[in-house]
Amino acid sequence: MNFTVQDSAERARALDHRQSYIVQAPAGSGKTELLTLRYMSLLARCEEPEEVLAITFTRKAASEMRARIIGSLQTAKALRGEHSISLLTSDDDTNPIKDPLKRDNFRIANNVIEADIDKGWNLDRHPGRLRIQTIDSFNIYLANQLPISSRVGGDLNVTTDVAPLFQAAIRTTLSIIEEESDEGASVRTLFSHLDNDLSRIEPLLLSLMHKRDQWSDSLSVLLSNPLDARNTLKHFIDELAAETLESLSVYLAPYTGTLIELNNYAAENWLSKNGQGPLTLDRMPGVDSEDLKYWKQFTRLLLTGSGGWRARITATEGFPSPKSGPKDRIEHATRAIQEIKNLIIELGANPKGELIRKSLHALAELPSAESIDSQWPLLSALLKTLQRLNQELILEFTRRGVIDHTQAGGAAVAALADIDGPTELALALDNKLSHILIDEFQDTSERQIELLKRLISGWTPGDGRTLFVVGDAMQSCYNFRNANVGIYLNVRANGVEDHPVIPLDLKMNFRSQAPLVTLINKLFSKAFPSYEDISQGAVRYSKSAAGKEASGIEPLTATWISYRDSEHANDAKILEAQKIAEKVKQLRKADPTSSIAILARTRNQFKYIVKELRAANIQWIATDIDRLSTVTVISDLIALLKALMNPADKAAWLATLRAPWCGLDSADLFFLANTDPEASVWRNIQTLVESVAEDNRSDISEEGLMRIKAIHSKIMILLQARMHCSVRELMEYA
Prior knowledge:
- The chain is mainly alpha-helical.
- 55% of the residues lie in helices and 5% in strands.
- Strands 3-2-8-9-1-10 form a six-stranded parallel beta sheet, sandwiched between helices. The chain has a two-stranded parallel ribbon with strand order 4-5. A two-stranded antiparallel sheet has the order 6-7.
- Helix 6 crosses helix 19 (405-416).
């Protein structure tokens, strides 16, 4: 079965070096190959290789892209050595390159080779001139160019283990509570507001530290002029409220009459003991921030405190029980309760129901603009505390010689612009960079888009410089690093600042067989929203077209394992692992060359699976799943190494003597450990061997004595050799 490449026109257009593009590239669409071709196409037209910058999110992606480019150039050189260039670039049947895609690859790679020869780049000897970097390495490169303005410098490593650093900075910051300073007073205000409860203060600051890329750049501005800061915060709230209300008013327009009627019924029947009730309405509220309080009434009416649709309607919401009172009142109450239940069911079933729910819940958590004035003393104290906390964190980074992703991004942004405008580095890069390519653009954060804006701030339409970003909004998964898929949607719609980009959509999936693609299209088109919303990050599903025929294996099968009670849960897990191992065997038998992936929610779920795979002699590769340190023989070797490196390490010596190569029982180990409690285990072994040689009696068992004698001489040799060879050589000899 031959598949037509349905998006061939888009793929060809993406190689137009004169235009900037944003490419929607779903799983299996060949985006890495497209990035590679685009990179080489631009490279062939530059004066220097450094004019083209490719940014990825992982080292693996950067390595793969670099390997593909170098591989394409090497293949092209080999073909040039065997055939004439005119033959290799021809479109007739005499061309030894039969695959049309490989022909395109050769032509582009050949152009790069010609440019390399003409301009003396020597890419063979200097492949490092190909600028393909992760976003973190690029950030640190920028920060190190101007260490003073970026407040970062030296040989720093990026770490993801930030919790100890944050906690150390928080403790140091809170320790100034008794200082007679403005910052000390701010910390005291924070403690007072939270009832001097340290268990509430530390988690609050820790959560803010994880999101500091959203506030750290604004601290100095907010604190420099309190009046402007208050107005700025009010403006942010107004803007966010208006943005949410505009879309929400459209979504709820079909339910206007019902919402007003139910709101007014709740207002009439509100119990005073429940506090301030809803205000009556004669029309739907407007979309300005002043109307926010009315919209929050709808939130309280339809949602629970945690943000879910209400399942129970009670007097607490303004709908008293219809069990007593006049008949007409009972009928009215019964009808009202049924109406709100029907409305909630209808809203939940609406294609935009999830977005409506999220928007209503977001409004409930949004403060009013008026509350900024009343709470400004507390906000001011929090801002000053955060400023000191940020400073302590930078000192902690410096002390430990590390940096996290957020700080690296902030340092890079700071290195490109200051209060006076673009820095010298930004101006220098503006002259050197002609083209920027970015992979996995759906996982871009606010700070990263700010970095991109500063990199291209000097670009003008038609100057020949281009931006090429690739991503898949459906695969956005870096929320833990403050990625915002709304940025991707916004760039597709509006470009980057004044730099327009043309949207392109790839459709083909060359990775999965046709039945699986069809099934995924069917299932996920229902799971995703049918629309896109930038502010809420709502992404619609883009259907793929199969580029691979059916393999004869069912695209989706399921085996359900149930058990009666918790006592049988362990048996169910073992059975599940056995079923998975059997399935792996079947798949390997059907296609020995295929790759197989096993996914689980947590590492613990792999415990039984790994055991069954090992029993079935099935080899696998895993990261942080089946750690070598958990394998018994590795633990024994580590104990032996510790014992050899430190003869006084009693625990390591006892573990070594317990290991299979010696195998002492508990009684013999106890004897060796306590022969002379002040001496090391090794010293006691030597004493034992010497006393036996002199025919002195010993309380150790005969078998234990035999085992000790067997390893004594070998350990003597290892202890003598430990200072004269590497650890690897020592362990290999052992």
